[in-house]
């Protein structure tokens, strides 16, 4: 997880420090040459140009790091970090280096701290404690949204397992009435987890299915309703309108966007479209255990300013890991 991005950040830090050190050596040689006395002085010696160096310190110029910041930006893009996010990270680094008087031994530390602060600013959104939120209302309706193949159904099953393990009762609404195997897939999860699945026939009104699931939960005093929806492209206006209808009819208490981390930069456009259409409360990133790049997670949060709640890191129901921004940042920079 994040292995490729971690490698690229490490390379970027090394390039910047080496570039500054190289510029320092050039400046030192220039200084020595200017200060070297001439054998015959027919004219008054020219004033020695003021050096950018003080004892053990270095004033960083924009020209020192311009090329390596560009390289770092390209590396971030290769790691599935969106352009807007990559520019933010590089601009933060430039702002904290250029024109500053920095001791050589502190340069790498300052670069790492700047990257850490940039990533923390992006990822450290106000977190939502699902386990606390679901206790505020009964039944509590959570709607799961996302693109085709993002892993919504599996994410729902994992959240159901999590809630049940904490003593909460759950039912699941088979609101994806368009995909041929969607209802069967949810029913299989329900049978294994011993969670009731409320369904209609294929092609039924998704809003009605979810409404019935909520009524079922009310009648049986079930704590949480987890509602599936059909995977839809963010470019399909009709399907996005249907999603608006589902929200208008059922007024979900929480809307979770499920994002396939392997989709790269397209995940940013997906997130923006869902946020614009119905609003998003939090994100679940799937397939993080097989994603070496990892930049999409950073980009999605930066794009819609909503927190990642959980990440999928395996194949079992228990493989739903609570997202920890500090842990991720530490892993990237150490």
In what order do the strands lie side by side in the largest sheet? 6-5-7-4-8-9-10-11
Give a quick account of the main beta sheet: strands, pairing sense, barrel closure.
Answer: 8 strands, mixed
Count of discrete domains:
2
Q: DSSP strand (E) fraction?
A: 5-15%
Second rung of CATH, namely the architecture of the largest domain? 3-Layer(aba) Sandwich
Instruction: Compute the CA-based radius of gyration.
Output: 27 Å
Q: Using DSSP, what is the number of strands? A: 11
Distance between the termini: 14 Å
Average pLDDT works out at 85
Q: Structural class given helices, strands, pairing?
A: alpha/beta
Q: Which superfamily, in CATH terms, is the homologous superfamily of the largest domain?
A: P-loop containing nucleotide triphosphate hydrolases
Count the helices. How many? Answer: 12
Low-confidence stretches: 48-56
Q: How helical, in percent, are the residues?
A: 40-55%
Shape: elongated
**Level-1 CATH class name of the largest domain:** Alpha Beta
SSE topology string: HEEHHEHHEHEHEHEHEHEHEEH
CATH topology of the largest domain: Rossmann fold
């Amino acid at each position: 997880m994040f292995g490729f991005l971690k490698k690229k950040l490490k390379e970027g830090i090394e390039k910047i420090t080496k570039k500054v050190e190289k510029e320092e050596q050039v400046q030192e040689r220039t200084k020595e040459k200017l200060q070297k006395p001439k054998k015959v002085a027919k004219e008054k010696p020219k004033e020695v140009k003021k050096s950018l160096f003080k004892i053990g310190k270095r004033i960083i110029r924009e020209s020192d790091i311009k090329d390596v910041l560009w390289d770092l930006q390209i590396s971030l893009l290769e790691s599935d970090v969106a352009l807007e996010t990559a520019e933010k990270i590089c601009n933060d680094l430039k702002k904290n280096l250029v024109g500053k008087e920095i001791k050589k031994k502190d340069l790498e530390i300052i670069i790492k701290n700047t990257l850490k602060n940039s990533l923390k600013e992006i990822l450290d959104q106000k977190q939502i404690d699902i386990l606390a939120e679901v206790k505020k209302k009964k039944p509590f309706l959570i709607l799961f949204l996302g693109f085709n193949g993002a892993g919504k159904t599996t994410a729902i099953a994992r959240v159901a397992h999590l809630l049940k393990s904490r003593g909460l009762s759950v039912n699941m609404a088979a609101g994806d009435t368009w995909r041929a195997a969607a209802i069967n897939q949810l029913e299989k999860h329900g049978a294994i987890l011993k969670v009731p699945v409320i369904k209609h026939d294929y092609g039924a009104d998704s809003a009605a299915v979810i409404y019935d699931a909520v009524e079922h939960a009310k009648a049986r005093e079930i704590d949480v309703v987890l509602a599936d929806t059909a995977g839809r492209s963010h470019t399909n206006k009709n399907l996005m309108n249907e999603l608006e209808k589902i929200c208008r009819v059922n007024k979900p208490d929480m809307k979770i966007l499920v994002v396939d981390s392997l989709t790269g930069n397209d995940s940013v456009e997906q997130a923006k479209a869902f946020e614009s259409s119905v609003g998003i409360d939090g994100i679940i990133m799937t397939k993080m255990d097989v994603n070496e790049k990892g930049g999409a997670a950073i980009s999605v949060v930066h794009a819609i300013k909503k927190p990642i709640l959980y990440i999928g890191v395996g194949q079992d129901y228990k493989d739903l890991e609570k997202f920890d921004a500090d842990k991720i940042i530490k892993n990237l920079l150490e």
